[in-house]
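Bench notes, afternoon.
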Amino acid sequence: MRNLPWFVLILSIACTSNLEHGQTNHHMKKLETAVQEASETWMEWDGVIGVAQGETDKGKPCILVLTTSDTSASVKKLPKKFKGFPVKTHFSGPIDAH
């Protein structure tokens, strides 16, 4: 019985770790779905050349939108958030594939 408190502590840490991992996987699936949905619409807009998973300046997951212009009307109409994730734009300029 003396070892019971240690067993309970170790078990609770293991369960918490698994719960956090499950929540992270669920959160990442939601981000993947949001990126896919955003891509289907926003890639049709002038100035948008890519939609991907990214990170905010604070390291949080976001939807990253690559643009050829940071002043186009299409870029200006992008939402600040989509499906609960922040939307971050990155002006990459035109991409020329050779």
